[in-house]
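cron nightly-structures :: item 1 of 1
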Amino acid sequence: MDMIALLLSYSAAAAVSVGVIAAFSSSIDQMLFRLMPSELGPHWTRYVKFALFVASFAGGLPAVGRFDRSPDAPPMPAPDAMMMVMGSAVGSLMAASWLLLIIFGAALAAVAIGKGYAELRKVREEPQPGFQDDEPVRRQEPAEPRPVQREKPAIHR
């Protein structure tokens, strides 16, 4: 039973990993093709999908150290084996959700920074209020000099 439970746990982790990649494949493609140049987009999508598979599969692997390999060890009870398989599926989902949160959070930050930069450039390129584009800039003439008083005012005590 131990070997069957172990194979089922590995299979559950692999199935969940493949399912998550299938569910988010189009979203990952759209996101990276929008952020990356066209020649880098396919390579980055392949890498992100590979990283997502590896992280979610590794997150769902059961702890192998709890198996007793001696020939006279009692077999694992069926409820424990089922909990190990379910634990593998949940661990894969949790690892995938964290990695997807990081990936989509970084993409959201990149889009927000890009839009903020575009808005900043747009504000800088707009004409200043009070000036027309075809109107030349007028220079102000210096003010008239004030007359200088030679007498000092009397100080009243």
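cron nightly-structures :: done
The chain has a mean pLDDT of 83.
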